[in-house]
Amino acid sequence: MQTNPLSQQREFTKISFRPDLKRFDMDSIDDDLESLLRKRVYDMAGVVPGVKVFYNGERIAIKSFKEYVELFTESRAVPMPVFHQVPYKEQRAIFIYVFHSHRS
Fold first, then answer.
1. What is the Cα Rg of the chain in Å?
2. Chain-centre distance of CA 91, in angstroms?
3. What's the pLDDT tens digit per position in 6-28?
4. Structural domain of residue 53, as residue ranges?
5. Which of 6, 10, 27, 71 is least enclosed by beta carbons within 10 angstroms?
6. Structural domain tally of the chain?
7. What is the pLDDT of residue 1?
């Protein structure tokens, strides 16, 4: 009996992106565009639950929307967000700021 090695592997979908540089009159991807594309990959990793996302062969270490939001809040003086998820729909991070006015 011969087994098919592909049948033993898990199913997945691979999406690759290679821009047609000639079409956009470009010789290469500049730093700004690369930064934008990398940001979009991180966005996808943060908002698509249960999907392993890679950028240039490296897995993005974000596994949840909460981890994604924490990328933007860790090093800043902002309050911890309150997370809200609508069943089977989007997730939200709500930041509550309390401002005190000191008038003399």
1. 21
2. 13
3. 556 677 778 888 889 999 899 99
4. 5-63
5. 10
6. 1
7. 46
